[in-house]
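Our consortium's second objective concerns turning raw sequence data into structural hypotheses that experimental partners can test. To show how far this objective has progressed, the report includes one record in full. It was chosen at random from the queue rather than selected for favorable results. The single chain below, 114 residues long, was entered without modification.
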Amino acid sequence: QVQLVESGGGLVQAGGSLRLSCAASGRTFSSYAMGWFRQAPGKEREFVAAISWSGGSTYYADSVKGRFTIARDNGKNTVYLQMNSLKAEDTAVYYCCTGGFSYWGKGTQVNVSS
């Protein structure tokens, strides 16, 4: 079993930055790839970014490529999402997941004002 807790969300103006964190506990964190998804009101949950277990490979949705950066610290059992140049359309609840989508956190709200 893996428990995931997201943090770092909040309200920011367009063009600003936020860093989300996802702290994991339970089974060996470093064995799993990690991902970030988001869900805006009235929309389906969508993929944002993912990182391999070693951190050597990263993947991004086209909508965030060049603005967001995913990273992980296996020593701290934490994955991060650095979000720069935020846009109003980035407003959503952000979730982290792992274990082949088996485990999800409860999410953290990001609001970007235009």
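The partners drew two points from this record. The chain has a mean pLDDT of 95. The longest strand covers residues 18-26. Both points have been shared with the crystallography group to help prioritize constructs.
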